[in-house]
Amino acid sequence: MRRFSSLTSIIIPDSVTSIGDGAFYGCSSLTSITIPDSVTSIGGYAFYNCSSLTDVYYGGSEDDWDEIKIGWDNDYLLNANIIFNYTANAASSGTCGDNLTWTLDNDGTLTISGTGDMYDYTWSTSSPWYNLRSSIKKVIIENGVTSIGYSAFAGCDGLTSITIPDSVTSIGDEAF
Q: Does this model's pTM top 0.85?
């Protein structure tokens, strides 16, 4: 069975508490999913035939994940090719320019604050929020930021909203 075979990334909102039986069964192009710590159960075959799934981002800790009631036949979630990222312990703030800082809040809003230019990132994987990219839904760049760096937000596939102030005068190649 092929269902949503073109779906590559899923971000589940905090309002979800359970993932039903076979919920994403057959999503063969799915590579990453973000599961909030509000999820307390995952039904059987929820990710069956998700043969491309390599990254699971979970909003809690590894101990929290171990407490989730996982339904029958979910052994494929333990597949050696899947990397689990426990974002509760991940950095959610840092620097991104000589006078710029970034913060990622629990609702997926990445805020860039300060004054001056954002650093350029040679590859999208070198941005400081790369490992949290599936959690980023909204970017707010505050007034005072003068440039958006090369490849800064490349790979942020769940991004739905960007606020850019008048102070930004340049946007780097492949920024988005």
A: no
Say if residues 118 and 94 touch (Cβ distance below 8 Å): no
- Residue 96 class from Cβ within 10 Å (0-12 exposed, 13-18 middle, 19+ buried)? buried
Digit-by-digit pLDDT tens for the chain (176 residues) are 456 778 888 878 878 999 998 888 888 888 888 888 889 998 888 888 888 888 787 877 777 887 888 776 666 665 556 767 666 655 578 899 999 999 888 778 999 999 999 999 887 678 888 878 878 889 999 999 999 999 999 888 889 999 999 999 999 999 98
Task: Give the residue from 85, 22, 87 showing the smallest Cα distance to 48.
Answer: 22
Alpha carbon distance 88, 62 (integer Å): 9
Residue 34's H or E segment, with its range, is strand 32-35
